[in-house]
Amino acid sequence: MEFSMKNFKFYPICPTFLVLLSVTCSSEVSRPRGVSLSRASLYNPDRNFLCFDNSKSIPFSQVNDEYCDCPDGSDEPGTSACPNGVFHCTNAGHKPLNLAASRVNDGICDCCDGSDEYAGNTVTTCPNICLQLGRHAREEAQKLAEIIKAGKQLKAELSQKGLRLKEEKKEKLVELQKNKEEAEKVKAEKQRIKDEIEALENKSLEVYRKLEEEEKQRKAEAEAQKTRQEATETFTKFDSNQDGLVDIAELQTRQSFDKDRNGEVSVEEAKYFLNNQESVDLETFISDAWANIKPYLMMDAGLFKPPVPQDGEAEDLQDGDDEHDGAPEGDEGEEEEEPYQPEEEPEETKLQYDEETQKIVDQATAARNEFTDAERAVREIESEIGNINDYLEKDFGPEEEFATLQGECFDYTDHEYIYKLCPFEKATQQPKSGSSETRLGTWARWNGPEDNKYGSMLYDKGQSCWNGPPRSTKVNIVCGTESKVTAVSEPNRCEYLFEFVTPAACREIPSEADDLHDEL
Ligand code: MAN
Questions:
Q1: Distance between Cα 408 and ligand 1 center (Å)
Q2: How far apart are CA 259 and CA 55, in angstroms?
């Protein structure tokens, strides 16, 4: 049998308890370099080697001969010859490791037992530090196991509280549903009473409504009459030549119509008040011109603030010379104008109901108030039911272990901000300088991978980032004996990452024992 010892090595197999006691063991099994114990039987020096993908059978002497024969790289487990090869370090006393073949003899110590750097043609020598590393790793694992143990105890208490809370909420829901039915009955009854008394009220007020209508009509007529009278008096005053017409020249003598306050009433200004006509008779004055004229008379009398000019015309007229702002100059030949004096508005008079009607109106008012109260009571119960349903719909973990975190908030302060995590509600950021809080996201969902769904939370739809997307926050959740935020970062602009520890996240971590058992 052609068999070279090159790249072939004896590896010790140590029972786990001996490794834990740091005792070196001597039993060894022969296998080519870079092969794991579980695959040792596939490399039998007494037979040809069959590539793992069954593509080729080669003489065993070609295993680890620095030439890649198998397409899957399985004939070169201990060299860097196959680009897809895998080198296995035993790392006795610590954890075994699989490396890409390219890292074999590359001058860098990858395996703690130094087995990946064996060529001796590099300056690197790799001491075996697996026992120290293994000891350290075991100590760390021990600490973690203790945290998990204590955390699981606390988690059990949290679960109990969470389950109790859920029960209480469910009971409360049943009670509220009953209350709602009652409240709805009360509301229906109040509605019936209200409708009944309102029908009566309607009937009683019918006669008053007619009176009110008549009163309104009377007022409208009086108003029209008053307007007519005011307009007629003004017409008579303006019609200085008493020809039965008010014309442009007559308006030009009145400074009230100097809209742009430039000291003279232009033809355009005067025409504006005459609704674009040269002159108007009394009827046209009343129907068309008066509505334009009255506000200006009131303005001059200090009874009315001028309207803000809106379009070109008004602005053009007012775009006058600044010097002419204020009192108009040169009022020679103008007659002294009396300030405009509108008639006093009459006080609104309220109808007095007869005793019987007033009683009904009061009863109807009381019935309306009682109905409004009954309506509000139903709404309040419905809102409480809504809140409980929202609670019951939330996923607080398989054993309700996260439930007690709802309603709590956890702070974390860095050099610039105070961050706050309110589980199942929101994440926020507030500058230490005290300016306003920024919402970094609202509770969206659990966001962990399939095998650890409760390992991450997502809060999204936060305040929009300047020129960017809405802010969002991921929360990594790990086991700890106390609930707190331990770190916050912003890996991408406006995307935040919180680290949160809580007993609620404590669970057995899948053990790596299988790997270790294989090699130790
Ligand atoms: C604020 C903070 C930062 C964020 C910027 C984005 O300063 O919310 O976290 O990066 O806005 O403009």
A1: 25
A2: 104
> What's the pLDDT score for residue 173?
98
Question: CA dist 260 to 279, 328, 488, Å?
Answer: 22, 10, 65
Express as a percent the part of the chain with pLDDT over 90. 75
Residue 309 confidence (pLDDT) above 60: no
Pocket of ligand 1, candidates 436, 465, 492, 496: which has the most ligand atoms within 8 Å of its Cβ, to mutate? 465
Report the pLDDT value the prediction gives residue 23, as an integer from 0 to 100.
Answer: 35
**pLDDT average, residue stretch 61-67:** 96
Q: Kindly report, residue by residue over 176-219, the tens digit of the pLDDT.
A: 999 999 999 999 999 999 999 999 999 999 989 898 899 999 99
Q: Which of 488, 494, 497, 498 gets mutated to test ligand 1 (max ligand atoms within 8 A of its CB)?
A: 494
Residue with tokens 């991408």: 492
- Compute, in angstroms, the gap from residue 415 CA to the centroid of ligand 1: 14
Is residue 187 within 8 A of residue 377, CB to CB? The reply is yes
- Pocket lining: 300 vs ligand 1, CB cutoff 6 Å: no
Neighbours of 346 (CB within 10 A): 10
Q: Atom 6, ligand 1: which residue's CA is nearest?
A: 465
Is there an atom of ligand 1 within 6 Å of 497 CB? Answer: no
Q: Is the pLDDT at 312 greater than 70, yes or no?
A: no
User: Ligand 1 centre and the CA of 465: distance in Å?
Assistant: 7
Please report the DSSP string for 116-139 in residue order. Answer: T--SS-SS------HHHHHHHHHH
For each of the domains in the chain, give its residue range(s) and CATH number, in order of start. 5-128 (no CATH), 403-511 (2.70.130.10)
Distance (Å, whole) CA 173 – CA 387: 10
Rounded to an integer, what distance in angstroms lies between the CA atom of residue 258 and that of residue 317?
9
pTM of the model: 0.59
| Pocket of ligand 1 contains residue 84 by CB under 6 Å | no
Given a cut of 50, whether residue 162 has pLDDT beyond it is: yes
Kindly write down the DSSP assignment for every residue of 467-484, as one continuous string.
TSPBPEEEEEEEE-SS-E
At residue 304, the pLDDT reads: 66
Beta bridge partners of 279: 247
Mean of pLDDT values over 281-308:
85
Burial class of residue 69 (count of CB atoms within 10 Å of its CB; 0-12, 13-18, 19+): buried
The pLDDT-based confidence of 316 (bands split at 50, 70, 90) is: very low
| Count of CB atoms situated within 10 Å of the CB of 217 | 10
Shortest-distance atom of ligand 1 to CA 471: 8
How much is the pLDDT for 299? Answer: 86
Q: Which of 412, 433, 435, 493 to mutate to test the pocket of ligand 1 (most atoms within 8 A of CB)?
A: 493
Q: How far apart are CA 284 and CA 231, in angstroms?
A: 11
> What pLDDT was estimated at residue 305?
64
Mutate to test the pocket of ligand 1, among 419, 438, 489, 495 (most ligand atoms within 8 A of CB): 438
Q: Would you say residue 119 has pLDDT above 60? A: yes
